[in-house]
Amino acid sequence: MESENTYMIIDGPDSSVVLRYIWNTASEEEKAQVDVWLKEDPEHEKVLLQIARIYYANQTRERIASRNSLRAYQKVQKKMQVHVRRFFLKRVSVYAACFLLGLIISSVIYWKKQDNVYLPSQVITIQANAGMRTHLDLPDGTVAYLNSGSTLSYPLPFDKNVRRVSLSGEAYFEVTHNPEQPFVVSVQDDRMRVKVHGTEFNVEAYEQESQIQTTLVSGSIDIEVVENGQVAKKVHLNPSDKAIYDVTKDKINIFPVNTEYETSWINGRLVFKNMPLPQVLKKLSYFYNVKFDVQDDIINSYYFTGTFQDKQLSQVLDYLKITSQIDYEIKTTRSDDSHKIQQSVVVLKN
Questions:
Q1: DSSP labels for 60-101?
Q2: Is 28 helix (H, G, I), strand (E, B) or coil?
Q3: Between 90 and 170, whose confidence is greater?
Q4: Same domain, 84 and 18
Q5: Which tens digits make up the pLDDT trace of 75-121?
Q6: Rounded to whole angstroms, how far apart are CA atoms 48 and 223?
Q7: DSSP assignment of 230-242
Q8: How is 266-295 classified by DSSP, letter by letter?
């Protein structure tokens, strides 16, 4: 039988005051209370960071669970809960434990940044595993959706002048409006930036690709091409605009698109409208975590139109086989350590 854990009451600001301080809604008197508490002991700063880290892990896990009702995940979730609980008891001080009980009622953690308060900064990295998609809330309230094989990194807390994140892969953002602290997405080692204040847009910037694609759904954004740390080119997008930056040619093309097609992956849908088959296979490659080996060059001249919702890879390939005069063979291989299984698809002319 597990023993019941008891936490002592600490002499410090009420947890609701700390929450308002973090949200930047505290009164001047409440701010002073927390400032004094932070300066009393360097450990108090660590406590705040521990709270954010633990809460962020818990909040992200709950978000994923709400969007995935598979029993397999529920089993994993229970294990994660045990892991987090043990980490909580072993690593977090009594101070953090008491504050966490009060802060856990909130849905998103925000950091209050002041010149006279030093809070240790850490880089948080979130990765969507191959073949999966992830949804998360950033500390400022911005919502991000990561496509398969994508990685998003950001500092905690954000810089007081800019909310900068780094993306490798594809992501859809619903950015919280804050004109005093613009939101910037940096891709391919800061080769290109997407600068916004509050808007919704999609960015596709896989490291191995020569094109960076940005689609604006609402609001407005600026795309900046960076050379030697300086902005060399800058273009403005309006809603329903899509910009494709060719890295090798150093050229940006802008044209109108149907944003529903561009962002359908968020809801597990694949929409193709008269798309060249090589592009179709590329999207399928990321979506299903498979590699395609096209055996006949003529296949690269084919075009395809179709919509798929929650379909297995074999179902999509069967439809392609009927409509595009191709044949295919799925091969399964194991990695050297025999733990990971990789699928590849050989595509042939029928």
A1: HHHHHHHT---HHHHHHHHHHHHHHHHHHHHHS-HHHHHHHH
A2: helix
A3: 170
A4: yes
A5: 444 444 444 334 333 444 444 544 444 443 333 333 333 434 444 46
A6: 35
A7: EEEEEEEE-TTEE
A8: GGTEEEEEEEEHHHHHHHHHHHHTEEEEE-
C-alpha to C-alpha distance for 81 and 88, rounded to whole angstroms: 10
Q: Are 109 and 20 in contact (CB under 8 A)?
A: no
Beta strands 211-218; 200-205: pairing state: antiparallel
Looking at 111, 141, 159, the residue that finishes a domain is 111
Q: What residue numbers bound the domain in which 89 lies?
A: 1-111
| Residue that is written with structure tokens 């940005």 in the block | 214
Residues 239 and 138 both lie in one domain: yes
CB distance 293 to 285 below 8 Å? no
Q: Which pTM value belongs to this model?
A: 0.65
Reduced to 3 states, what is the DSSP secondary structure of residue 185?
strand
Angle between the 28-40 and 42-66 helix axes, to the nearest 10 degrees? 110
Domain boundary (60, 91, 111) is at 111
Percent of the chain as helix, strand, coil, to the nearest 5: 35, 35, 30
Note whether 98 and 189 are same-domain residues. Answer: no
Q: Is 231 found in the same domain as 135? A: yes
- Look at residues 47, 49, 41, 132 and name the one whose alpha carbon lies nearest to residue 97: 47
Q: How far is CA 295 from CA 152, 177, 252, 329, in A?
A: 34, 49, 32, 11
